[in-house]
Specification:
alpha+beta, 35% strand, 3-stranded mixed β-sheet, 4 helices, 4-stranded antiparallel β-sheet
Length: 136
């Protein structure tokens, strides 16, 4: 009986931060533009700090968290010769693994400590598309 209790307790701690275990603390987001070949900067919307520079099509690896229960939102700005600058926000949402996984497995530690501190409770869209209009 004591062994069963220890195994159940270990299982509770193992699954107590579902989003951190399943999704991780970073996320890769694909960025595409029409037309392709645009130079894009990805900046943290709150601080204005540039976190990535890519040529489309490309991908960036972004941090999910920026503090306890805080996520960074990003802004993507793309430029291409003879085209107007294109911008789009990249806004986080609460990750389903954080909500459902921690609720189902009873992970209060994951729900209130691990996932909020690691940032794994947040998710971004897997891809972002920016349409650039031609300069007239």
């Amino acid at each position: 009986m004591k062994r069963l209790f220890v195994l159940m307790l270990a299982g509770l701690f193992l699954f107590s931060s579902c989003a951190t275990i399943i999704k991780g603390t970073n996320q890769t987001v694909s960025i595409q533009s029409e037309p392709a070949g645009a130079e894009c900067d990805v900046k943290d919307s709150k601080t204005g700090i540039k976190v990535a520079h890519i040529t489309t099509p490309g991908a960036v690896n972004l941090k999910r968290g920026s503090g306890y229960f805080q996520s960074p939102d990003y802004r993507i700005t793309c430029n291409l010769l003879n085209y107007n600058t294109g911008e789009t926000p990249l806004i986080s949402e609460v990750n389903g693994w954080y909500l459902g996984g921690n609720l189902l497995f009873g992970g209060l530690i994951g729900y209130f400590i691990v996932d909020p501190l690691s940032g794994a409770m947040w998710s971004y869209p897997d891809q972002s598309f920016i349409s650039l209009s031609e300069v007239k």
